[in-house]
Structures are given as structure tokens and as C-alpha cells.
Amino acid sequence: MRLPSRFIPPRVSPRLGWSGAFLLVSILIGFVCFIYSLSKVGRYVAAAVVCSVLAYSWFQNKRTKRRFELLAASRNGDSICEFASSFDTRSTDTWIIRAAHQELQAILQSYLRYFPVRASDSLLVDLALDVDDVEDLLRDIAKRSRRSLAKTEENPYFGRLNTVKDLVLFINAQPKTTL
Predict the structure, then answer these.
(1) Which of 17, 44, 50, 143 is the most buried (most CB within 10 A)?
(2) Among residues 169, 175, 139, 147, which one has the least CA distance to residue 156?
(3) Which residues are within 8 A (CB) of 93 and not within 5 positions of it... i.e. 6 or more apart?
(4) What's the CA gap between 48 and 52, in Å, rounded?
(5) CA distance 77 to 140
(6) By C-alpha distance, which of 177, 5, 179, 176 is closest to 100?
(7) What span, in angstroms and rounded, lies between the C-alpha atoms of 83 and 77?
(8) How far apart are CA 29 and CA 27, in angstroms?
(9) CA 134, CA 167: separation in Å to the nearest integer?
């Protein structure tokens, strides 16, 4: 008998740690020293560039957040139940379905507290993920659902990861780990 997906191991959030904090502070101090070593005009130019990049990032983030809000409003509060019903749970591991939903929620949380993910959502277009995000997502879902990512080239879904459903089916086709 399969263990219900509610017993899936909890999501572990990555922590920065002391070494990461030390690295960030060191970079910041180095950047401040570099700016201070510039001439007066150089400081103004550097400040203008930094302010421009921050303003552009802020506007892009607002635009993306608004797009996610409109998309979520059109979905009438879909939950994990609607997401799971998009899959044949007799042939698809429910741990993978739950892990995929939870990991996507964690990624999209910076835009919206809860985003109603659908299996038909495009990873790159609808969810605005990049290739690195998809690779991290694959690794995290596989780890939580106890699947191996060895020999992915032999997977029938290899090279065809376009939608969330493709992602779930890709991991489902991977072999289980012993623990």
C-alpha cells in the first residue's frame, strides 16, 4: 500500500548561514570602497546607475506581480485538489504531485502568497521561470518525493519540459531511490 502524500517530508528552506552572510557583507564593503575611490563625477554616475537598476527591478517586479494577480483572479481560487485532479493518480505518484505544488508555491510566493497552479501552466511563459529555476525545481521535487535524477537522458520526457504536467510526469518516470 502506498503511503498518502500528506506524509511527504516537509520542505526545507535554504538558509544563508554565516559564510553566506560574511560573503554578502564583504561584497557590499568592497562595492562601497570602490565607489568611494572614484572621483566625484564617478560617484554620481555610479549612484545614477545603481538607482536606475533598482528602479527598473522594482517596476518589473510590480508588473510581474500584477500579471500573477490577474491570472490568479481568473482561476477562482483553485486549490491543490484541482491541481491533483489533472493527473491520473493511479499511475502518477501523489508524492510528486504534492511536492510539485508545494515547491511551485514556494517559488511564486514572492509575487503572491498563494498562486493557483494548474498542470497546463507553461513553466517559462505562464510561471515566468528560467532554466535554472526549473533545474532547481526538478532537484527539489525529486529529493522530496524520493526519486533519483540519474540517467535522465533515458526518460521519455527528457527535453520536453514545457508545462507543470510535463515536469511531474518527468519525475514520475524516474526510478525511486532506496531512501
Answers:
(1) 143
(2) 169
(3) 2, 145, 147, 172
(4) 6
(5) 25
(6) 5
(7) 11
(8) 5
(9) 9
Q: What is the pTM of this model?
A: 0.79
Is residue 117 classed exposed, middle or buried when 0-12, 13-18 and 19+ CB atoms within 10 A define those classes?
buried
3-state secondary structure at position 163: strand
Task: Tell me the three cell numbers of residue 163.
Answer: 508545462
What amino acid occupies position 72? A
Q: What is the pLDDT of residue 2?
A: 66
- pLDDT (tens place) for every residue of the chain, 179 residues total: 566 676 677 776 667 778 888 888 899 898 888 887 888 888 888 889 989 999 999 999 999 999 999 988 898 878 888 999 999 988 999 999 999 999 999 888 888 888 899 999 999 999 989 888 899 999 999 999 999 998 888 888 888 889 999 999 999 999 988 76
Residue given cell 511531474 in the structure block: 168
In the numeric block, the cell 525511486 is attached to 176
List, in sequence order, every residue forming a beta bridge with 122; answer none if it has no partner: 163
